[in-house]
Fold this protein.
Amino acid sequence: MEKREELYRGKAKSVFKTDDADRLILLFRNDTSAFDGKRIEQLDRKGMVNNKFNAFIMQKLEAAGVPTQFDKLLGDNECLVKKLDMIPVECVVRNYAAGSLVKRLGVEEGLKLNPYTFELFLKDDAKGDPFINESHVVAFGWGTAEQLVRMKELSLKVNEVLSKLFDDAGLLLVDFKLEFGVFSDGSIVLGDEFSPDGCRLWDKATGKKMDKDRFRQGLGDVIEAYEEVANRLGVPL
Ligand code: TMP
Ligand code: ASP
């Protein structure tokens, strides 16, 4: 596999072409971003931890029947993935109230949502990732109604699989964000990453935040918390 030119540089990852038209390389950098890129800092080991965390989770999801972009780890900071046409929509599943839901509705952080909620946001930093609904996705051509049905179905399956996985490690999966893309055969595939950057995890016993809220809220020991989550799950670092 030959690494070719950079195709795209995101806030925390870079995407490279390869000599295979159906495969890309994802490079996980140490850049840590919050507030739609308004705050970016370098955190030692973050790229490596998130790359290996993501590989572990994606393989668990694939084994549970969720098609993912992940192909294989290439090194500490890189993995090989299927090339997808990304749908610019973020799918957020919440099991407990936190973050923007608390701000928007004025409910108490930690409120158990029964059942979970499923929300959509447009992936557009310049516009602050606005809250949207299904009709916007279809009307603006970001995705079809059929693709949305599949994205929701897969998001809920991910919630089922990962809620159990984290629960067994003494962690509450509070909420998470997923991004999907279309593979060359037209199927919807889970893309981007799953790591403590894109979900909220609270220790079941103490309520301690073990995810990127430590960075957003200046709580410190960000990567130490990510590493503890990885160790509890048995992710080889
Ligand atoms: P929110 O409470 O800010 O809407 O975030 C919900 C979940 O989605 C939380 O786990 C963080 C994640 N998320 C991202 O990973 N990237 C984003 O751009 C946004 C808005 C949320
Ligand atoms: N991922 C987004 C950003 O970097 C939002 C966040 O995680 O707070 O800015």
